[in-house]
Amino acid sequence: MASSRQLIDTLALLDQIQSGGRIVRNSYSYDMDIMMQAAGQFAMRRAGCFVVDDDNRFLYENLFRWLAGDPDCCCLSPSDRHTVIRADLSAGIYVAGPTGTGKTLAIQLLCDLARLYKPQIQHYDKVKPLVWNEFRADDIVEMFRRGEEPTWLPTAPILAIHDLGSEPPEAVNMGNRQNVVRQILERRADGCTMTIITSNFPMCHDMVKSIYGDRVQSRLMSMCNYFELGGPDRRRR
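RESULT FIELD:
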């Protein structure tokens, strides 16, 4: 007869198989108005101001729903960039938009709220906090060039990469030439991870394909929930 420990291990394995090895989310009760107020307080410390308007309201409301594991969370179809679709709570986030529209700030505020509210995820058989480290894409390339790239980037349960597409396409270290960010994205696409991205380029833009290839661009569509930010440069207001 199987022991209790063996039974627990078997049930955990079945849960992983059922979820396809993906990150499992829990849902939490939340108040949208209170979360907006908390984000505003964090934004005042980071940027000195926080304005929610028609250009960013859809993004913020659904980032907060994503954080809370709300099944009503929505995003945009990356193929036409306008159709609203149901978000995948086990997937990450991709925010595209022109310079100065607030992409990086939105993700930083989301991380601030994650540290405040302490939501959790299940990653394989471990329960972990829904928080992440953030890197600029060009800083990752520079770290590789200096031989200092953190080896855990491709396998971290959650990782944020800012300004995707702004980095040099290749870097050389000890005679080894690599498209560093492309390789990280490829490995993260093959693993049970959650990736958060900001970029000036829409997900289906030809520039994304030319830098990272068809495979990465295609996988991004299942790796991330897609959002866009428009409007003027908020830094110049």
